[in-house]
User: Which sequence fits this backbone?
């Protein structure tokens, strides 16, 4: 099983091992050359900009711009997906917990179960592939992206469970789990943010799963729910003739902007700040740490940390990863509720305000707003993946990744001279 020590040193070791060519050729396979950088990116130990530049450095020895682009385009696009989810999550706030669009399954949203079935949480469904994915998720805190899609599809379409229940399950365990990329990916599978539901069959599993699940499965020869063509599965799982058509009765569509997601500014820039370090910025590129290297920096270990989906407790692996990251930073760790703990620390330090970095998670945004009711709060932006605004007439179209990428991709590659 893959293990992930937290912290910058471990992140840099993984970053040094990336291979854009092998990634592009094998990324869809469970034994492919994926980077496993996502936990470090999620927590700001590495920034997307740093990873982007590392990819460009690997590509630099290639002779032509077209060679560099062909070799690295899939890995750069994957980083683009991360930037896309974060931009959309920043815009939506808590709206990421609501269906973006009507379901295209033909089923009324009320027919989906609200809780994860016990056999799934126990990795005891009797299906070798599903139990392996569920076990790996909970034992290691990481899953290959293909395994995530297969597991999510099984939860939503075969077991008819609300995607929100699966999303909370993933957020509890995934070391790279943040509500934006996690929830919107679940919605993509569920069809509340895609043109059709995502499903898979046994042939797809055997092709990309390295042959490690079907042989020996108790249901290998009889009763495998995935042993069918895609057309047959669509007939079994959905009630619409065309799964691209939305259901007549749809769940509530999330708004395009959450209450309080506006970009606020403070009346005065703190001169003696307290630095609030949150879980999205646990690396040296944290702009608050860079701007005020001598100031007291505080991380609050809360009983209900941001980024878990409404009070879901973090699994031990996630807590350990964060602890490893914090151990390498000049940060004081306090326990308690964020707002009163930070205000008390600011008062004890004689701080005239709080400086932090931009957070995508809606609850972290809400904490910043609460703090600003008592003290000035300055929110600093991390280095962007691509130079595009988050709002205004020149902001990218976020209705689909393809629209965002048409605008962003040329700017990204221009930085590499390609």
Assistant:
């Amino acid at each position: 099983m893959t293990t992930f020590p937290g912290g910058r040193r471990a992140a840099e070791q993984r970053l040094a091992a990336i291979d854009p060519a092998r990634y592009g050729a094998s990324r869809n396979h469970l034994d492919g050359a994926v980077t496993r950088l996502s936990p470090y990116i999620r927590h700001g130990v590495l920034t997307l900009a740093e990873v982007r530049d590392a990819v460009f450095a690997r590509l630099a020895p290639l002779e032509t711009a077209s060679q560099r682009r062909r070799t690295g385009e899939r890995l750069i696009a994957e980083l683009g997906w991360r930037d896309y989810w974060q931009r959309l999550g920043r815009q939506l706030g808590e709206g990421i917990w609501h269906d973006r669009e009507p379901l295209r399954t033909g089923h009324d949203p009320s027919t989906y179960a609200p809780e994860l079935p016990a056999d799934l949480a126990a990795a005891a469904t009797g299906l070798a592939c599903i139990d392996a994915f569920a076990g790996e998720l909970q034992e290691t805190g990481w899953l290959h992206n293909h395994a995530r899609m297969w597991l999510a599809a099984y939860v939503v379409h075969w077991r008819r469970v609300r995607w929100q229940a699966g999303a909370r399950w993933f957020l509890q365990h995934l070391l790279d789990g943040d509500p934006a990329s996690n929830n919107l990916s679940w919605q993509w599978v569920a069809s509340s943010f895609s043109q059709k539901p995502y499903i898979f069959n046994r042939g797809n599993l055997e092709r990309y799963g390295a042959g490690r699940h079907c042989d020996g499965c108790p249901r290998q020869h009889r009763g495998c729910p995935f042993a069918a063509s895609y057309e047959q599965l669509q007939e079994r799982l959905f009630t619409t003739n065309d799964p691209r058509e939305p259901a007549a009765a749809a769940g509530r569509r999330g708004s395009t902007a959450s209450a309080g997601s506006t970009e606020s500014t403070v009346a005065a820039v703190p001169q003696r700040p307290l630095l609030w370090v949150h879980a999205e910025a646990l690396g040296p590129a944290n702009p608050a740490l860079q701007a005020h290297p001598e100031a007291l920096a505080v991380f609050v270990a809360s009983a209900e940390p941001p980024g878990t989906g409404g009070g879901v407790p973090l699994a031990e692996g996630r807590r350990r990863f964060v602890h490893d990251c914090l151990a390498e930073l000049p940060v004081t760790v306090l326990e308690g509720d964020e707002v009163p703990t930070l205000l008390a620390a600011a008062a004890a330090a004689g701080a005239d305000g709080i400086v932090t970095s931009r957070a995508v998670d809606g609850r972290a945004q809400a904490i910043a707003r609460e703090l600003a009711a008592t003290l000035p709060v300055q929110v600093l932006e991390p280095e962007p993946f691509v130079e595009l605004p988050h709002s205004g007439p020149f902001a990218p179209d976020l209705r689909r990744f393809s629209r965002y990428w048409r605008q962003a991709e040329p700017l990204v590659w221009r930085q590499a001279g390609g």
